[in-house]
């Protein structure tokens, strides 16, 4: 099985588990564990076997989730899967962040201005307002417009337009100037996604 096949299987199992938790239950393994329960006379062995049956009946969601986290970013990038598409299939935004599919760079951006001679930000890629809006929906921490440009891409005008529309739609609130700003010029405006 190729690495791409392994990744796709991990993605498929996780998505199926989200919609049907019973889909990860291995009935053959349960039958084998129950046979051990029936055939053993030692109480400790029986206790361990009963515990194994219970674990198998609930499925190994930890392993399924871990496999998804290992493969989601690379597989999603290779197949051009947008964050909004993951979310529409039920993947929680916090799982996407943990997998590296989305992120909130507000907490990791440098507080000092870029040093002289450092590499400038790459030219913005063509990103739609919808892609920016889908990314903003996954954020839990305050952000500034440059965080979105760094995370998703898009021109400053497109990012600003998307956020202004989200503010008008009451999906994002304007928090005011960034209190941690200590560089040149005015402090950037911080925003917060409205949840619930």
Notes on the structure:
By secondary structure, the protein is mainly alpha-helical. It has two domains: 3-96, no CATH class; 123-193, Winged helix-like DNA-binding domain superfamily/Winged helix DNA-binding domain (Arc Repressor Mutant, subunit A, Orthogonal Bundle), CATH 1.10.10.10. 54% of the residues lie in helices and 6% in strands. The protein is built from nine helices and two strands. It has helices spanning 3-19, 27-39, 43-58, 61-78, 83-88, 93-99, 129-137, 145-151, 156-168, and strands at 172-177, 189-193. A two-stranded antiparallel ribbon has the order 1-2. The two termini are 42 Å apart.
Task: Report the major sheet.
Answer: 2 strands, antiparallel
- Rounded to the nearest angstrom, the distance between the terminal CA atoms is 42 Å
Structural class: mainly alpha
Identify low-pLDDT runs. 104-112, 121-125
List the helices and strands and how they pair.
Layout: H1 3-19, H2 27-39, H3 43-58, H4 61-78, H5 83-88, H6 93-99, H7 129-137, H8 145-151, H9 156-168, E1 172-177, E2 189-193
Antiparallel strand pairs: 1-2
